[in-house]
Amino acid sequence: xxxxxxxxxxxxxxxxxxxxxxxxxxxxxxxxxxxxxxxxxxxxxxxxxxxxxxxxxxxxxxxxxxxxxxxxxxxxxxxxxxxxxxxxxxxxxxxxxxxxxxxxxxxxxxxxxxxxxxxxxxxxxxxxxxxxxxxxxxxxxxxxxxxxxxxxxxxxxxxxxxxxxxxxxxxxxxxxxxxxxxxxxxxxxxxxxxxxxxxxxxxxxxxxxxxxxxxxxxxxxxxxxxxxxxxxxxxxxxxxxxxxxxxxxxxxxxxxxxxxxxxxxxxxxxxxxxxxxxxxxxxxxxxxxxxxxxxxxxxxxxxxxxxxxxxxxxxxxxxxxxxxxxxxxxxxxxxxxxxxxxxxxxxxxxxxxxxxxxxxxxxxx
Length: 365
Fold this sequence. Notes:
By secondary structure, the chain is of the alpha/beta class. 37% of the residues lie in helices and 15% in strands.
């Protein structure tokens, strides 16, 4: 008898989607349901079913999801499922079958909905359409988390948030990172055409910032680290905050090179070449720092958030308070003295195989 796998919505790229990939692979016979699927080529066949929200214009889906998704999740059509596995970062943990049928339910929590619980960390909180009465939204959300199902957090940082917001404890299973593939070879040999030309044009030493260019990712902090280190900065990624970063770069005392969106081969080559990969945001987990370590990079991350759980201060990089210039300066010096071999060894602890084993064991308990 198959189970049901529930996921908020499917994007073209993202850490939550990498978790979903593994869950679907662990349970190939299970059905899957999401609010909508913006990457229809990601999964073969008709395994992924979408909610009625998928019929809305793309520009309106996420706005509607905040208001309507609890109702969608609480009225899933019943079938003979023997369990429900949920991947939740908004309200998917509300999912239940109607008419009610008691089946085991396992919820992998990327985070309780940040826009109501941690509005300073989620830009959606300022959007007029998302300004629901916060007290009511929190009460509804917390009540859905009290129904006795099993919870798993993607980091100890999120585990603490679950405890604070929902008054519940959770097991921690770190997300899967493709560390074996990244560390397997010198990725510069895979570069071709424009990627090869762009990589060859880079300085021999540089500080790397790579992420989506949105404000909370803090790519401006990468420019500050490059200034402190006295070496050029390379920025990989695209997004709405890029014009601001380009404007700041005009006053940088060191060169700043913008690469835009890059292929996996070029990104991994950048990880392998960089003097220091800088990851300033407060993230729930942070897959990219682990990817960088798998490639042998020294990594500098925020003192707050899930990424500090993966980076070993003084061994694989350093943690810094990015609001304190002295802290950043000291941490840059520490990170630049670390051994790349330690980074690769540390990254191996977050492999896909490790996730699959831990997740399968949790959902069978």
